[in-house]
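User: quick one
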Amino acid sequence: MDGIRIRGGRALSGRVRVSGSKNAALPILCATLLSDGESLVRNVPDLRDIGTTGQLLETMGCSVACAPPTVRVKPNDVTPEAPYELVKQMRASVLVLGPLLARYGRAKVSLPGGCQIGSRPVDQHLKGLEALGATIRTDHGYVLAEASRLRGAEVVFDMPTVTGTENLLMAGALAKGRTTLVNCAREPEVIELARVLNKMGAKIRGAGTPVIEIEGQDELAPFDHAIIPDRIEAGTYLVAAAAAGGDVLVENVPVDDLEALLAKLRASGVTLEPDGSGVRVLRHGRLRSVDVTTSPHPGFPTDMQAQFMVLMCMAEGTSRISETVFENRFMHVPELARMGADIEVQGHTAFVKHTARLDGTEVMATDLRASASLVIAGLVAEGETLVRRVYHLDRGYERMEEKLGALGADVTRERGIDG
Ligand code: UD1
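Assistant: Done. Structure below.
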């Protein structure tokens, strides 16, 4: 397993370009299953999760030419089964469930199981598909779903779920009649999937609002689509630049999708200047602590909570960071504490006190965004930090060490250090 070694204490300067969105690309790659022809997806980031999705589609019988930034997929003789070996590597594999069931009348998809940030059930996905007429049972760790033809219906989600909304969008697009989804996730990635499905011939209205209406179609056409930039990668570089100090232009930032984060950065004393399609980040002087509560979009994204916490370690005062989306998303706290951070967790809230300085040491990445937070901590820490198990980071950040290196950070990848 690889690690990342960071020699901290350097301010960052220069430009960094944001890649295509991972969380938009994953459902869109799964949407290729909804038509017979070859679809072309462009601006796809070169990430492990994309490779896993390509492998999954190939295992099921699609021809896949996975060469990010372009990926071509053509379903051939599809066997609608997603095996545990692939699903366990990436929970988002569950996104094949809706399209397989809608297009092939059955699906056998391994249950994703738990993950570091909580139990993350898929009950809402299953409840929604059942409402559309699917018969669903679980057997030996697999979801077995069947429906000769899904029928449009109303689905009311108990909570806004991103991949749940996406699965139902794809299922509803090929269902007979009208589907109404209520209490939907409003994330930009949901809107992007609806855009693609409409390109394929679906009739979807209301994506980006809590209620989405879908007029089901008998068939859908292949598509050609370039993925939106990754708002979480953009946010991560904005926070990294703010934490390390200096003058950085983050290019290709979906500013409208990041309002909650940008407001908190400004409130903490970071200067953000719009510059073309990018944002210039400057930090002069001290940071002020601000409180943050994660919530579904357009609230503060849970996927930025760990990175923002590092920034708050350096801010004057005490910051209260509450996590309301996932039950166990403070795995980075003990690792940051090993670097000298003063953070107390009470239930779903972390109280982050000002730390005069972080010290470089060996830390362990536990999940994707936690890994990014440890890299940021390494950038500001005194001395050397070794972040172990960065395979998490490779799931979601394209060539992070190169991008940070181009900004003047001293970051190197150490190959195979964890056996
Ligand atoms: C997606 C993102 C992930 C992000 C998360 C929240 C992708 C591939 N991943 O994950 O990066 O952190 O949104 O913004 O887009 N829940 C249930 N039952 C369900 C579904 C969800 O109880 O059937 C709960 C979850 O446990 C969680 C909350 O709903 O507490 C939101 O989760 P959800 O939006 O579904 O997250 P993902 O779609 O898995």
